Each structure stands twice: as structure tokens, then as C-alpha cells.
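Shipment paperwork, digital attachment
Item: protein structure file
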Amino acid sequence: MPDALTTALYLAGVGVPVLALRAGKGPFGNCPTCVDNACGGRPNMKTPGPCLCPRPCHAWAAATTDPTTLTSRPWAAAWRRAEAVAYHPGGAGVTVVDLDNSDAITWARTALPPTRTVATTRGEHWIYSGTMRSVNGVRAGVDLKSLMSYARWLGSGAGTMAALPNVVRALAEESSSPVRPAPRVVTVPLPAGGGECRHRSPAYLERGIAMAEQRITDAASRVHATVYRTFLAVLSAHGRCGCLNEAHIARLFTAAQSKGESPRHCTDAWSNARTTLGL
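Attachment content:
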């Protein structure tokens, strides 16, 4: 995208935090440690992945208004490879109602107050002034993108931006306790084992698995990172002696899926943890 950096610098100059998107809408990290996912974060980087950087540098957290960051390594290379420019709506003080199809647009025209509108490849972005928590799937074809989220920059749009209405905030509240699908059993490789078992009794392992389940269940934010680090801790303590079995892993995956993790994200986190530990 030849003009991506020019667009990004313009937006940063007017206070809009921006980031570069690779093919498939996955964002680049904004620090050298995270180039090409070297830190162990998720392959698509759509959420801040597990990372030892001083501050979050993936997904929406990669967005910045600092021109020095945008033009320094590794972002100089990222902009040459970028397929699009994205921005952090919450950081810009706005909320994007992402309408993904014609039915969603028809609904919005009858249910929401008019505001600035930007055409997308499949629908429209309705942009309101004000921030709120981001929620996907508040109704068919409708996502809310604001805090801790990012949206593709598709131009300034048309119309006057209205204040964030209560009807949009209510959509998030109605979705605060969604009915999640039943956790799906996923088969993953068991640790090879072979080392000396340090566990004096089955109770030691049981306590460790129970604590790991609780840690995931109690996560109030950064669920992806919590799941990865919990898997890493379990494998670090129990992964080399062969005592983990499929039932233990299923319990961990069930806890993660109850917090909204997909089966694919569970297997990615498990695989990344095993790779990190050389298992």
C-alpha cells in the first residue's frame, strides 16, 4: 500500500492512533521484539498476545500517534508490506458501529440516530463521538468497536458525527451475558514426558490444574494473554514428566472457552506454550 505511511502520519498528526494491517487484517506489532510474531503472540495478532515487552504492542495496543514510532524500525518495513491502515477508535474518542451487511444497515437506519457514515467493502461504519467497551455480535452483522479494538481506516466518511446514543450503549449491555456454545473438545498433542516425576501425590497435580482453571475463570481482561500464560505455567510444572492427560487438557480448554476463547485459539496458545518450553 504505497500511501499507507502518508495516510498514517496524517491521521497521527490530527490525534488518531494508527497501526499497519497485513493481509488478512492482522496488525503488525510496533516493537522490534515482536517482529514476525517472535515474542510468541498469536499468529494473526488481532488481540494483544502474550509478550514480555514493557507495554502492550499488539492489535489495538499497537496504535500510536507518535511519528517517530511510525517511521522507525520495525514499522518502516511494516508500512512497505501493509495492506491497509487501521486505527484505535477508543483512542480517537469515537465508537464505530460496524454494519456488516445490507440487513444490518436497514436495521440501523430505523433504530439508530444518523451520524457520520463510511462505506466498507460489505456494509458501513457508523461513527459516533464518545467511547464505550467493544463488543462483537451484538446482533446479526453488527459489531461495536471502540475501547480495546481497532477498525480499518476507509476515509473520513460523510455526514455530521453525532454523540454516542444510549441505544448503542444498550446493545453492549444486552450482550454482556451471551449464551456461549458448548465447549468443543479439541485434541492436542500430549507432552512427550520422560522426565522424573516430581509429584509426590495425585493431589499435587489436581491442585495445579484446579488453580489454573480458576485463574482463567477469574480473568476480567486480557483473557488471551491469561490463557497463554496459564498454559505455559502448567506445562512448565507438569509438561516434562508425562503426568498430564487428555482429561486435564480438556479442563483447561473448557475454562478458556467459557471465557470466549475459540477452540483454535486454545490450540494456538497450547502449541505456542509447548514451543516456548521446547516440549
